[in-house]
Amino acid sequence: MEEELLTGGSSKGVISQAWTRVSQWYQSLVDKTVPWQKSRWLAAVLLILVFLARVLLAQGWYIVTYALGIYHLNLFIAFLTPKIDPAMDFDAEDNGPELPTRANEEFRPFIRRLPEFKFWYSVTKSTLIGLVCTFFECFNIPVFWPILVMYFITLFCITMKRQIRHMIKYRYLPFTHSKPKYQGHEETAAKVSSK
């Protein structure tokens, strides 16, 4: 009986070690893709096009496509939204947002609720899951697809309108490329002395 416990425990240890190795290999593979932003997104767009081609050629799985579109829309909204919502971050003195709103205030980079890498990773993973679902007939639920398309377009417009209003109200842009460069006191003094 002790031998059975020992062999059972060792097989669990072997499986656990193998799973740990596979997960470490997978994580190192994913980590290697971090610097290749354009290539990652190109691969994700190609994967989405393969998914759409599969749905169009098979003439089915519209509900899977709709669910995938809603999920991607939620990811995109999280990508455009700041990590700390300015609507909830009020200063006690003037009841306004603490984020800098003028050019002479301190630079604070836009920090996203959903970082770019996690956005790409979630889009890629969900598209792969959706593609796998298109190979199972149980997910091919018959629906009138034009209604789903119209509902998605309506939902997209309402959601983006709300997001754009939020961006205008709190004066932030989710697409900044680098920190602005200011002239230092030394540079200003050098220009004045050279004149």
Query: Between the first and last Cα atoms, what is the distance in angstroms?
Result: 94 Å
Runs in which pLDDT lies below 50 for 5 or more consecutive residues are none
User: What is the helix/strand order?
Assistant: HHHHHH
User: Helical region count?
Assistant: 6
Mean pLDDT: 81
Rg from Cα: 25 Å
Protein name: Protein RER1
Transmembrane segments: 41-57, 63-81, 143-160
Subcellular location: Membrane
Keywords: Membrane, Transmembrane, Transmembrane helix
What would a concise description of this structure say?
InterPro entries: Rer1 (IPR004932). This protein is mostly helical. It is built from 6 helices and no strands.
Break the fold down into its secondary structure elements and pairings.
Layout: H1 2-32, H2 37-58, H3 62-80, H4 116-133, H5 145-169, H6 185-194
Helix pairs in contact: 2-4, 3-4, 3-5
Label this structure with key terms.
single chain; 195 residues; mainly alpha; 6 helices; 0% strand; flat; membrane
Structure description:
With 195 residues, the protein is an all-alpha fold. It has a domain of 121 residues. Helices cover 64% and strands 0% of the residues. It is built from 6 helices and no strands. The longest helix is centred in the N-terminal third of the chain and has 31 residues. The model has no long low-confidence stretch (mean pLDDT 81). Its main location: membrane. Involved in the retrieval of endoplasmic reticulum membrane proteins from the early Golgi compartment. It is found in: Membrane. It comes from Brassicogethes aeneus (Rape pollen beetle). Belongs to the RER1 family.
